[in-house]
Design brief:
alpha+beta, outer membrane lipoprotein receptor (LolB), chain A, 15 strands, globular
């Protein structure tokens, strides 16, 4: 599988992750109790200004075809996400992905090309909608604070809290663990037949913030007719440091904008 196909698959996963739900689910808590539980979960979102993950391992299992690459991930809060992909053992960069508030940029080192995708273009191609805030929250294991108005129900089960969100596109569920005060699972289904589960584990404290070092995506995509497992294993996370990742574009690269 070409590098560009790997990255487009990651884009597709993030788009599928953005769907929410339609049904109103009964809750065993009063409205006041639901609000208090939601506020408690959000208060434990990872707080940061910059996020830097060096030498993360990304593994993809697409319809039993396995591929992997090393990645550096940089996030500037509410501004940009940059992912650099490298060939394992060789350290040769094959491309970079830049996710902005209004567009997604794909820099392909192998084909010496740059593609710029609008969110509207990707929505039409993949059949689902998304935004920057949702992608950022998924990478960090946070509840998206810009999407909490669609809360359908909150249920308290022993040492866990279930949060259900809904809208016209599908259903979204977070499982919050009271043992470490973090989101440990995030599952999504939509009316197009896409289903995704994100599991967070191996929580470690980085610069005073508890973060998942292991993230597992399990995807069934009706649009792409695929079953995909994606694993991200962080090796070193730095918060609010000086490390950054740029996105310079060589002048001789071919350029294509998809609206």
């Amino acid at each position: 599988m070409k590098f560009s196909h790997h990255i487009i698959l990651l884009i597709a996963v993030f788009f599928i992750c953005s769907c929410s739900g339609t049904k109103k689910i009964p809750s065993d808590l009063s409205a006041i109790e639901q609000k208090a539980n939601l506020d408690s979960v959000i208060s434990n979102n990872a707080k940061f200004e910059t996020f830097f993950s060096r030498k993360a391992t990304v593994s993809l299992d697409l319809n039993q075809s396995q591929k992997s690459f090393n990645a550096t991930i940089f996030i500037k809060k509410d501004s940009e996400i940059i992912i650099s992909a490298n060939v394992p053992f060789l350290g040769i960069e094959v491309g970079r992905l830049k996710i902005m508030q209004d567009s997604v940029y794909l820099l392909n080192r192998v084909e010496k090309s740059l593609a710029i995708f609008s969110y509207e273009y990707l929505r039409k191609r993949l059949g689902v909608s998304m935004n920057y805030s949702q992608i950022q929250s998924i990478i960090l294991g946070n509840v998206d604070e810009n999407n909490i108005s669609n809360l359908s129900s909150v249920n308290n089960f022993g040492n866990k809290i279930d949060l259900m969100f809904s809208n016209a596109n599908g259903m979204e569920k977070y499982i919050f663990s009271k043992e470490n005060d973090k989101i440990v699972s995030h599952s999504i289904s939509d009316i197009q037949g896409n289903n995704l589960t994100v599991d967070y584990s191996d929580f470690r404290t980085s610069y005073g913030v508890l973060l998942p070092n292991s993230i597992e995506f399990m995807v069934n995509s009706a649009q792409l007719s695929t079953e995909t497992n994606i694993s991200i294993q962080h090796k070193e996370i730095v918060l609010n440091g000086r490390k950054t990742l740029d996105f310079s574009i060589p002048k001789h690269y071919q350029y294509e904008r998809k609206k």
